[in-house]
Amino acid sequence: MLRVLLTNDDGIEAEGLQTLRRALVALDDVELAVVAPDENQSATARSISIKRPLWVQEVGFEDGTVGYACDGTPVDCVRLAALGLIEGFEPDLIVSGINHGANLGDDITYSGTVAAALEGIMLGVPGIAVSQQSTRRELDFRLGHEFAFENAAAFVARVVDRLEDVPLPVGSLLNINVPTGDIGGVEVTRLGKRIYQDRLDLIDEDTGRKRYRVYGDSPVHDDDPGTDLAAVSAGRIAVTPLHFDLTAEAGMEALREFDLAQLLEADDVDPTS
Fold this sequence. Notes:
With 273 residues, this protein is an alpha/beta fold. The chain has one domain (2-192, 222-268): 3-Layer(aba) Sandwich (Stationary-phase Survival Protein Sure Homolog, Chain: A). It has helices at 15-25, 74-82, 112-122, 150-161, 228-233, 249-257; strands at 2-7, 30-37, 56-60, 66-70, 93-100, 127-132, 172-178, 186-188, 194-197, 201-206, 209-213, 217-221, 237-243. It starts with a strand and ends in a 16-residue tail after the last helix.
């Protein structure tokens, strides 16, 4: 029996999560638990709630099963489940989504959806993060309000059902982005590059305070072949393996060759320089 924890960042009542929940419940040999935020927690990345206790409430679903809503972040939800919130349940797999909007390229660093799956890696549990492009075919998670989740839910359910056969590297997760409309195939991709168009706009002033908007138009992207952005743009499901090791291995040797210890010698530092 595979024990699967389902979570997201759009909230426990979100259509994406509920569509995926129904697909996973239908699988034989899967024990499903749902722990998700009680409200939208998009773009919270790997935030955690360390300054207050967390409220958790049992939530009933239309098929008679239950889940748990938490007033914390997606990462909090994974921690709760891993620490024994549900008696007798210890997850073998974290599935996060389906996110309302794509999580592509550099956007994954902001994503609560991806962060929840990353927390699984921290706990030694494999993860799948899944996101759905809107019917407007946007490539920005901030846009789009209409979604069709059935293709994404069916694909992820098949991945989970055949997880033993999927060559998922140890210590990694799969970041899955599903295009809208007819699916033109599945491509294993690398992360693409976003070109953000943010700007600083002063929008209000009030007695010593100024109010700014710091995020601008929808970002564009380099349409490089082999990237997740290019695949979804072409109507293919993008599957990108991610890991948590952020070490810049290529730069380590050059850094070792520099005598960093000399910087400990105060006499060699000119405070006016």
